[in-house]
Structure formats: structure tokens, C-alpha cells
Fold this protein.
Amino acid sequence: MNGLSIEITSYGKAELLSFKEQIIDESLAADEVVVDVHYSGINFADIVMRLGMYQDAPPKPFVPGYEVSGVVSRVGVGVTRFKVGDKVMAGTRFGGYSSVVKLPEWQVLPLPENFSLAEGAATPVNYITAHIALHEFARIRKGDRVLIDCATGGVGVFCLQMCQAAGAEVIGLTSSENKKEFIESYGAKAMTHEEFWKSDEKDFYFILNSTGGKTLKLLYNRLTKSGQLLCIGLQQAITQGKSSPFSIVKALLQTPWYPILKLMMGSKSVGGFNALKFFDDEVWMKKILVKLEQSEIRPHVDKAFSSRDIVQAHKYLESKKAKGKVLISWRE
Amino acid sequence: MNGLSIEITSYGKAELLSFKEQIIDESLAADEVVVDVHYSGINFADIVMRLGMYQDAPPKPFVPGYEVSGVVSRVGVGVTRFKVGDKVMAGTRFGGYSSVVKLPEWQVLPLPENFSLAEGAATPVNYITAHIALHEFARIRKGDRVLIDCATGGVGVFCLQMCQAAGAEVIGLTSSENKKEFIESYGAKAMTHEEFWKSDEKDFYFILNSTGGKTLKLLYNRLTKSGQLLCIGLQQAITQGKSSPFSIVKALLQTPWYPILKLMMGSKSVGGFNALKFFDDEVWMKKILVKLEQSEIRPHVDKAFSSRDIVQAHKYLESKKAKGKVLISWRE
């Protein structure tokens, strides 16, 4: 039972990613499922790991990757929800850049009806991130004014749909004029960042930010009383797949500290999270994955690159030109 | 139309509070209501003001006080919801330590059925504070684990009831063993602060704190992932009705600053608010007061002091011995 994996052996540019033959132990625990992977999702965190900046990554060499989709090829004797041949999607905790994975049953989900396998691999991480942000931190309600600062990314696409389903009034921001129509297709108001900063749009109950840095200070001022600013990434530290000590220090220095007193005077809250921390937590994951099975939202796949083109795939995500999700395809 | 007011003319100890004859202009705008005050609520913020530490207080001399109850004695020609003789409660924006007040109609509420006038004066500020904390910031849901660090105060009593109504699982803290039964009477688990810190009770979705200072750091560690720590006061800066530059500086230094990065790694949020800021905002107030009219919760009045005994009343609140609300009575 062998396959192929993509590994981080040295930190740095995308060209340093390397392939290795994957040898999976033939033994199978009672609750384990083997999935022949069709697609692996690429996340911004993978790039942070590749640059050696991800605190919680294993020591190199290691295989990154947090999500896959594919077809079940073996099941342990205690597995009840799946049989060989079932189409599935799964959250992995590293190791997702592989053509075959072995996972405990609880991490695996049936592919929703009408989902393509590509859509399956585009779902777990972004869905969980969007769900935790909007339904655990913000707990959005009908009529809430929401600002999604990263509206065209994989998380943003889910956020727009969740806001629409909840009846929230949402503005989605994008860096490029020609992505506005994409945002509007989810029932949201679209603005470029430039237009937004010139406008007086404010009084948001919830603002989701993934860039960190000095933008946070400005966004804070656009919150309403009792509003929350939530940061889920520090993409400002990374530009075009590079990070320098300078860009990191700059992003960190510009990422504000909040004294409780300031929050009290402004009647606001600030928070942050790393969805990947929730992947470790079986109790949380089970709860969220049930919600995913019940939900009707759908990812947007921008592009699937053949696994051979992993370098181009990483560079494309870094360029921030993608709308929605970028994938690795193993079956081309 | 004259009355009596209690004024802050010099900052400092309770003995410096002074009475003055109150002369209210006979003119009445179309939307105004005159209330003969029976009870005025005392809040911790009044003590902060008396000490000269309240940023948003008017220049002295001024009359403090944020809430009253009483009987309507005059109404403007445009007033539709009240007539002379109606029992009411009202939020005031300063000026509540008075035996008669003139207010715009929207700030006045009918006294809920079965409420005594004393209970009416114990309601507006604490209800609004508890409501904003639990239903706007936290947005508590059934099953949430909640910690109320100030469970026996006026706000705490409302919080316990709101948690009970929402089906949240709540622990209320108190400084004194003999107040535990009081907390338990609201369906909550009661612990002394000492017992709590020795226990491993943690994983709270929401923690409400009113002391500020170093406790915040410790409470932060008891939050669950996606949990929120909310601070609504810095009572640590004030002990027994005194504040010194030392106690203030100490409280401020011990009140932590939160870097966004730390929040991201911990997957948590922190916030603060000052309910009195919401009193200025007619849109907010109208929305919340409707909720109050529909709610079934009830304040707990610890004691009403005759207005003549205002010094003792302030000292009693400062002693932190009260369970629930402390009032000024004008009709004894």
C-alpha cells in the first residue's frame, strides 16, 4: 500500500518542496479508514510552514496538509459509517499532501450529495474556520452588520454564505475590482479595500481579518459598541511567498496590543484563533463536523493543480489572485 | 416644583456629598415626563465619580445617579405612554440622586407588574449591564459554561437569572461563604474565590469580571477555546471607598494588555465595556428597554437607605457586603 507524498525538507521557497515515496504500514486499527486521495487542499498555513514560521509544525522533514478527499479503499473491523468505494472528505493533521492516507473514522466525513471530489477537499479547513469565527466567536444573528476583510478566499466564501443564511448584512472586501461580482453573487455588498477606507462604512458588529498588522487598528475603529474584531492570520508578514526578518518584525510591531482599559472605554472586544488548533480536539471536531454534514453551503474551487505542479500551486496561492480554494490533484 | 438633590461638590470621601435644594424649570417639552422619585439606585460608578476618577462625569458640582423609580406627576402634551399617577422606573444620565426628575418619555418605563418601587430603582443600570454582557457580547446559549466573578452584586443577580433562563451552566463566585446560598437560590453553582482558585474548574465559554487587575490574567487561563473574558469594572483600584495614586497605578499595571498574537495562539477573545456609555445612545436604549419590558427577571434589593443617610449608603456599597442592590429612599 504505497503512494506519493510531498514533503517539506528545507524551509524556504516553493521549489524546495520535494516528493517522496510513501510507505503506509499495512496494519489497520479497528477504527481506521484508508482513503485513496483524489485531491488535497492547500492552505495559507502550509506556506507559513514551508517558510519555517509555523510554531506548531512537526520537525522537518514532514508532510504538510490538513484536508483531503477521495475514495475509501480499506476499513478497520470496527468502522461502521463507511465501506470500500465510498466517496469521502477528511480533515488530516499534517500529512494531507499524500496520494493515500490512513485516518481514524471520526475524522472522515461522507462527501455531501452533489459535491464533486474537488469540492470535498476544499471544505474541511475553510468550513471549520468560518464556522468557528461566525458561530462560536461572533455568534451572528439576523441583522448584524458584518465585515469580511478576506471575502474572496476559501474562508471568505464560506463566511459570505453563512452570513447570508443567518440574515446578516455583510460587506465583503477584495483587493481587485474584478472580484466584486464574485462577492455579490453571494448576496453581499462588495467593495475594494480602497473604496472601503474612503467610505464611512462603520458600526460593524463583527469584523473578520486575516492579514494582521496595522489594518487591525483601523478596523477596530469601525466596530460598533459591543462589536468584535477577530484576527485569523498574519498574512501581512508574507508577500509573494517570501518572508524576511524585516517583514515579520514589521507585521508583529504593527499588530496591536489591546489594553483592557481601552476595550472598556470603547465597549469592544478583540480576539484571534487558529482553526488548526481545533483539529487536535476530537470533541470540538465531532461537534463541528456534524454541523458541516447538516449545512447546505458549498465551497468555491478556483483551481486544481496536478501534484506534479505543486510549486506553481503554492506560488498561485501566494499571489493572492485565487478566488476560493486551490487544490492538489493526485489522479491526473 | 422643587425638590432635593445630593451633589458632588468636592472629590473624596462619602462625607463630602452634600444636599442642595433642587429647582426644576416649570416648562415642559412635549415629550417630557416629570417623576416624583421614591428611590434612586446607587452604582459603583457613583463612587468612582465621587473620588474624581470618572472620565466622563460632568465638571463638579454635579448630581450623580443613573436610575430612579417613582410616580409620574406631570406629562408633556405629546406623551402617550404615561399619565399622572403611573408608577415608573427610569434611566437617568446623571442627576438621579434627586427627589424629582424631568426626563424624555423614551427613558421612562412602566414599573413591571408585581415590582415594588424599590425593585424598579434597582433595575435599569444592572439589567442593561447584564443584558449587554450576556446577550450582546457573549450571546450565551444553552449549555455554555459561564463564570460570574461578581455574582452577588446587582449585575451578578441579573446575570445568574439570565444564565438560568438561557440554560447555561453557571458558576457564581463570592468573597464570603455565607453568600453561597444566595447564589445557589438562582440555580447556579456557588464557590468562594478561594475555593475556585484551588479547584480546576475551567473551560468557560464566558467569564464576567468587574475587578480588573491581576485576576484577569488568571481568569484568561480558565477560558475554553473560542471563549471570551469580559471586564466591566476596575474595582480593584478602589478599596473601602478610598483610592490612592498607588492603588490606581497598581490596578492599571496589573490589568493586562493583550497582543493579538497571544489571542490567536490561545483562540480566545477579550473585551470590556462601560454600560453607562450605552445610556447616551437612544437607539441602543430603546432596543434594550423593550427587552426589559418583556423579561421576567427580578432584581434583589439588599437595602434602601433614607436619603439623609447617603453617607452610610455609599460606605455600605464600598464595603462590598451587599447582596444585590443598594438604594436611596426619598419618602421616609
Summary: Chain A has a mean pLDDT of 90.
